[in-house]
Amino acid sequence: MSHHAVMSQKQESVMSHHAVMSQKQESVMSPHAVMSQKQESVMSHHAVMSQKQESVMSHHAVMSQKQESVMSHHAGMSQKQESVMSHHAVMSQKSAGGGMAFMSL
């Protein structure tokens, strides 16, 4: 893990400063982009981390999730048997978090 880099593990690790990272069939991460993960872990400084099948997150955007966890930089986080870590975000485990994020399941 680096300060402004995204790190993902599981048969493939990619680390770059402000670049896009793709992992496991469908996974896109960038500092100001949308991130979608599938059974993976993502950690970045100003990004979101999601685990469990399919999560979608964006920096300052709306997120829609499907039975998964959604988190954004300045938004509420909802987790489901997973761990979420972000730089400046609120964490709520095992419930739907409300913040500046708009969740539609």
Give a concise summary.
The protein is mainly β and 105 residues long. It contains no helices and 8 strands. A two-stranded antiparallel ribbon has the order 1-3. A two-stranded antiparallel sheet has the order 2-4.
How does this model look, in words?
This is Interferon-activated gene 207. There is one protein chain. The protein is built from no helices and 8 strands. With 105 residues, it is an all-beta fold. Strands 1-3 form a two-stranded antiparallel sheet. Strands 2-4 form a two-stranded antiparallel sheet. It has a two-stranded parallel sheet with strand order 5-8. The protein is globular, with a radius of gyration of 12 Å. The model is unreliable at 1-100 (pLDDT under 50).
